[in-house]
Amino acid sequence: MTITHHPDMSTLMAFSAGTFDEPYAVVIATHLAMSEGGRDIMHRLNAIGGALLDDEQETEMSSGALDRLLAAADQPDLPEQITPSSDVPLPLAPYLPNGLTSAKWKWSGPGVAICDLPTRDESSSRLMLLRVAAGRPVPEHSHGGQELTLILSGAYRDRFGLFGPGDIADHDEDVEHKPIAEMGA
Amino acid sequence: MYAIAMSEIGSGKNLGTPSTEPAALLRLIAEQGDKSALSDLFLLYGAKIKGVMLKSGANEALAEDLVQETMLTVWRKAGLYSTSRGAPSTWIFTIARNLRIDQLRRRSNRPYEDLARVEIASEAPSGSAVVEQSQVIARVSLALKALPAEQQEVVHLSFINDIAHSEIATRLGIPLGTVKSRLRLAYDRLRPLLEDLQ
């Protein structure tokens, strides 16, 4: 998979810092799952956190903290939460346990369907799937803030070029674009 | 065509002075379940993680709990650490960050956990460059301190104080675009060093 459209560096930095709410984090994690190059950049960004942690001022731990840790280390680990397998990248699978085709689509104009994905966060962002028929315009889903759009399959084209699987459009509110879904994709 | 989309609505002196490299301590835990290596890692990192958690908005008790959780995760997952995941400090930072998202912000850290599984599955084994990784981190830390004050400020507010970019903009009374451009400039300064990590 060749990724040509990457998130803005400041978007990746927010992901690395961990300040995004769930909808952002899901879209970026899914993109990174599809992009080896993106994961390399994320490793580099995480080193900023590593260096800052090294430099952090030490704050005295309560007495007994080490004993508490060593006692806890003897306890067996809880089984890991396993994400069900699905035809979507792993970070998206908890939201679509039965894959793309099982999504509950809502008609949203000719050739366009939308499926809202519920998130745990009480965030001010919305996570949704879009399905757009070939040759149809991709609907605007922004309401005046940042928007991230990640292509899972197929492609669309706008004035920024062709966006295929793994490509992400990372736009501020002031970006005007009119993406059209590609034929035969 | 299918797409997934989202949009908005609207110094180093330590008590006990452990003698071994953190990467070697992680290996001792992974291979031998060595609890004295866990003690040493706790002495190296516990008080620093607590400092980060307090700055992230945790109270004293929660910060202590998050240190415990972080170190316990290090103990249990040490076998998954490899140098391709960065220096030990970087790996421990990401563990602390994920717990902070989950417990301090009460947000889902699931995307991070699932991405980590993707990485483990796709990672080529790598056995070298442990020492170089730590040296690079030391150089990154020097470079961070050499950044212009306004860039250092936004990097700290984001990575350590755990504040969203839009909130940083509000606090500093600057446009969101300025917060983002300061972060991009900081990355450009650090980039040559960070690329040495690969």
Automatic annotation (TrEMBL), chain A:
Gene3D superfamilies associated with the record: Anti-sigma factor, zinc-finger domain, Jelly Rolls
Residues in ChrR-like cupin domain copies: 102-180
Pfam families, sorted: Cupin_7
Domain of life: Bacteria
Recorded coiled-coil stretches: none
Protein name: ChrR family anti-sigma-E factor
Organism field: Devosia algicola
UniProtKB/TrEMBL annotation, chain B:
One family name in Pfam for this protein: Sigma70_r2
Domain RNA polymerase sigma-70 region: 42-108, 143-191
Keyword terms: DNA-binding, Sigma factor, Transcription, Transcription regulation
Keyword tRNA processing annotated: no
Superkingdom to which the source organism belongs: Bacteria
InterPro entries documented for this protein: RNA_pol_sigma-70-like, RNA_pol_sigma-70_dom, RNA_pol_sigma70_ECF_CS, RNA_pol_sigma70_r2, RNA_pol_sigma70_r4, RNA_pol_sigma_r2, RNA_pol_sigma_r3/r4-like, WH-like_DNA-bd_sf
PANTHER family assigned: RNA POLYMERASE ECF-TYPE SIGMA FACTO, RNA POLYMERASE SIGMA FACTOR SIGZ
Family as reported in the entry's similarity comment: Belongs to the sigma-70 factor family. ECF subfamily.
Protein name: RNA polymerase sigma factor
Native source organism of the sequence: Devosia algicola
Source taxonomy: Bacteria, Pseudomonadati, Pseudomonadota, Alphaproteobacteria, Hyphomicrobiales
